[in-house]
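Reviewer comment 2.1 asked that we show a complete input and output for one of the modelled complexes. We chose the cytidine-5'-triphosphate case, as it is the one discussed in the main text.
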Amino acid sequence: MNILSGLSYEQIYVINSIKKICILKNIDAYIVGGAVRDALLNAKVRDIDICVTKDPKLIVESLEEIKEFKYYSEFQTASVEFKRGVSIDIIRCRREFYPEYGTLPKIIPSDINHDLFRRDFTINALAYDLKYYKLIDLYGGIGDIKNKLIRKIHSNSYEEDPTRVFRAIKYSIRYKFLLYDRDEIISCASKGIFKTISNDRIAKEISLLCTEKNWKDAFLLFARLNIFDLNCNLIGKSNPVVNYDHVNIRLLNLFYSFKDKRDADILVDNSIMDSDLKKSMMQLKNIDVENFLKETIDNYEIFRQLKNMSRYELAYLSWNFKLTYKIYNYIYNLKDCILCINGNKVKDFGIKDGKSVGSILRYIKKLKLNTGIEKDLNRRDIQNALEYKDRKF
Ligand code: CTP
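Response of the prediction step:
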């Protein structure tokens, strides 16, 4: 089977230039992982990984048309960006071992067979030999693609690298494949395997899941596999204020759906996610949403309470049905309300004291926010405003 037929002209051009160098330098080269999987699934191939049997530096030094490249000596991996808009990772074939569960693996250069064994799932442990144009499938990956299964390769795969649980969910929701290891994943989650990895690693996987088209299914799987205790009816809850096209809103929705807000620490305490989003989540932990703004129907009060809130805080509050239309009203009517008069105009009426000027302006704003009307300022309004001065509004 020639998997190259599913790639773009530019991708094939670059792969052939790598192949030529490999043949000249007596290096075996294989397309591996997601590119082979996606080509077999007739899905768009985005990232291409090529595994090679010598140091990738030997290839990169002879390559032409490189726009940029990075070399990671610890993993003997070169990430190459070509002028033709194609990116390829060239990776030394290796075997991996984990000194402890949850740590990053130590690597030893090796051959393609070991390299395929180190991988997460059978569907990702496929290689395409560039020299002999043949597929290598040591673990039944092609069969699992046909049978729509996500299946681990080696015995302690999830304990060694708990991020694979999130990866399994990602492929399962993306391709609508079944989780062959479902029971094992549930058991691993209940044993607390995620405690062996940092919040950063979990946050990264969750953020990646949120970029998937079927992100809601991922959250539902979190609940079904007991990874997080979630209010499933809150997942993807729609209202006129939120737009789920933004990944951060999806992350916020997960935060909103946690039954136990202690789980939220993963989303708040990491260096991966957007800092404004994390800051908003911190603030939200301290708001009693049920009672927030519940009683008030005064638009000025609504404005005052919401004016310093971020778009994330507003979206979060809007998921509470008692607040939805207050938030909506704030965003579309109240937020940008500007008075026609200013302090100088008030002073023209002989009011000199700054505090009184402020009170009068606030009073006029209160009237405008609640009635939609701003009349020309007159003595009567000033008088009313001054009577209000000592009241809290
Ligand atoms: N891999 C693994 N275990 C991990 C991460 C990655 O075994 N924890 C292997 C898999 O074989 C995977 C390859 O490394 O196919 C490349 O990883 P990545 O780029 O994350 O995945 P892709 O398969 O390219 O999938 P995606 O389409 O989501 O990018």
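The longest strand covers residues 66-72. We note this here for comparison with the apo prediction described in Section 3.2.
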